[in-house]
Amino acid sequence: xxxxxxxxxxxxxxxxxxxxxxxxxxxxxxxxxxxxxxxxxxxxxxxxxxxxxxxxxxxxxxxxxxxxxxxxxxxxxxxxxxxxxxxxxxxxxxxxxxxxxxxxxxxxxxxxxxxxxxxxxxxxxxxxxxxxxxxxx
Length: 137
What we know:
Layout: E1 4-11, H1 15-25, E2 30-36, E3 41-48, E4 51-58, H2 64-72, E5 75-82, H3 86-95, E6 106-107, E7 113-117, E8 127-131
Parallel strand pairs: 1-4, 5-8
Antiparallel strand pairs: 1-5, 2-3, 3-4, 6-7, 7-8
């Protein structure tokens, strides 16, 4: 069902400062930076081998990431898994009793189709399912 870890999401308060750390100290190449208004974030994607680190900064305090930062502070936000067919995966997860935040995929960074699974269903970890844009059916 899950083919690879697509990315690890890290909530940050200041995306420019976080980018300086990850591109400078860790020497990770920045591959994309964009505002995803529908999710209320500015996101930056950095390559790590065949996976990514995604830095997400809230567009405001009332967004999901803004609320996360207020409760937990900066740090690990989610783990995202790559899939070949997001609609099929969501159906299988629902049938397995997972509580989905998104019943249907929505558009994320770089045009990928994404959906989230509630942490209560995944051992306390916010889980994202990702079907990269080039693979969307």
